[in-house]
Amino acid sequence: MSKRVVVTGLGLICALGGNAEECWNAAVNGVTGIAPVKTVNAEGCYANLGAEVDTPNAELSSEDYDRSSLLCIKAAGEALKDSGYEVTSANSDRIGVIIGNCVGGAVSIDKYYTAKQNGGGKNTDVLKMPAAALANNVAFHYGLNGTTANIVNACAAGTISLAYAADLIRSGKADAFVAGGSDSFSSLAFAGFHALHALSADPCSPFNHSNGITLGEGAGILIIEEYEHAKARGAKIYCEVLGSGVSSDAHHITAPDPEGKGQMLAISRAVENSGLSANDIDYINAHGTGTAKNDEAEFLSLHTLFDENDHLSVSSTKSMTGHCLGAAGSIEAVFTVKAVCEGVVPPTIGYTDENLANLKEKAGGIDFVPNTKREKDIEFAASNSFAFGGNNASIVFAKKPREIPDRTNNERVFITGMGEALGAPTAEISGDDYKEHGIKMAFYRKLDRFSQLQLISGMRALKDADITVTDDNSKDVGIVVGTADGPLTEVYNFQKTVCENGTAAGSAFAFPNTVYNAAGGYFSIFAGIKGYNVTNANSVQAGLQSLCYSADVIRNGDESIMVATGTDENTEVTRYLYDTLGILSSDKLGEGSVSIVLESETSAKSRGAKKYAELAGWASAHKSVEFGTIKGSEDALKKVILDACANAGITPAEVGCIFGFANGHPAIDALERDVLSEIFGADSDVLKNVVEVKQTVGEARAAAAAKQAAKAAECLSAEDCAYKYALAVSFGLGGQYSAVVLKKCED
Q1: What pTM does this model have?
Q2: Do residue 391 and residue 467 come from a single domain?
Q3: Which of 45, 481, 631, 653 is the most buried (most CB within 10 A)?
Q4: Number of folded domains in the chain?
């Protein structure tokens, strides 16, 4: 029987208010937060509207945190207080943090570069730039030591973070999560959408005028908790979290599939995984951005799936909050939960009498709730989010307890393919690499360095696994990309142009590559992969965490095949930023992408696939220390190794060889040496078999972490290998760790 998952706390800050109740009251009464922008210079721009927050966090300083973190910490604090969840030393490792985000620390990049132009620029601002800092900052502020992740799938990120949190709780890996999304209003996003001519000169008008978006900012946080745990502590319960669905269009990097197939797959999966039919859904908080292409595709999706539903209400709260990017899904999830609890549907505002006549023609039997809230009993509600990269996500909430289908399985998981584009200091990619996979120059030119590396390694892994993606199997294949820094070079250079030449100077060609999930998006488009698609930016260890995440997706019954990847680039910008920090110095950096195909036993047997090794056990752990450091996180490293071994059903003594993360940094090398000695014994034979992959590939961050697992699989697959089990373990700056135990294939 699947564990029940519930919502026990809500936190929200956006242009409508400073807490969940203020925002909800404004939304149901049709109050808009859209006004002329204050934090971005819109001189020379055709649009100047936004939905900004006056004070992101009155208790903390922007000297300490990026604006996205300030918003997120504020909402997380409200949600924790609302839930009555008392975090103690005894339970802190059972509550984690999963945060969705789009633009990372874009405000800090702006701040740093602007100050640098004037002879200043603080090194501490560099640590605020990566999206990897966000979940860590929340965890550090509140002393939360459970699993962390930063889901960076652009505008679907907030919804995916909630889905991932619920899945981890159902698998028994946590009691609760602080989950949601946060994004700040930034000149990067404003300039980018302006360059794409995607902004509206008037307040956005979803499902109505549909002439562009209005950007917003904020954070929405939900405390997602296992039901029995919530019940035992006497928590109030808002509602149940039912099923979710994640998919990829495999169509275009910025435009949705006009036929809405990817959207419909995500929604259908969410409904089916909830044990429901389309006719059961009472309310949908739509993605509803207000652009013509998005609204048209969503209209088609809704009509195709729900035209037989005679009681469905649909609204877009973006008409009041603006589009809050990575926070949009979780902000809208808070509104959806409130709608279920209060029996009120918030409206989509902005309709005139003439508009209402047009809506009647387009809406059919669906109630799009124009201008005025709708009071109705809501048993089941869904929240939908769609994003750049063709990423789609949907999640379902229920008023009353409901048993959902248990799709989890105990199937063995195997590594059946591997591919890489890896090197130190840089990876070599030539025209021959593109010809190898039939990649045309017109497609190649769209890709930044980060995406090029990802595409080559991903295609090599599929080829090595002898997998050809077709219409028949495209929905059964998924992707998890792990990265430390993402396309930080593209982000930094785009912001540099805006700082030097003004907001109106943003490049429409460059902007799509500033989102972290572009690499996974391009890979899915070229390969035709339409299943689960997530990018996780969680520091150096993210490449190994991508295997853990992918294995969970297979065990949850979501996909049969996953491509787990670690990707990071080494450019002039990357070297400059790491040298500025004084950690992971540039002379030790490498770069690349390593992709590993994971496959369920049933799928591997049906294809007669070769098997490098079995992924026997996996785990992630975290100890809250300041982002950019590892000091004080030893307990998390011990825990992740022991947990991975326990998950594999073995003791540490059964591990034959270890693929470690030492990189030449004294503190990092000492941490690995001391903890391994403590767990395995200073004189144990296994410590003579520690392979330090980074001696060869450099500190390629997420790529090196994935390479550790690949090397372990290669070792075990060798005929003369005497070991039965191998361990790969990696660290992240901020106390994140992942470990996997691989087993030699004996059948």
Answers
A1: 0.97
A2: no
A3: 481
A4: 2
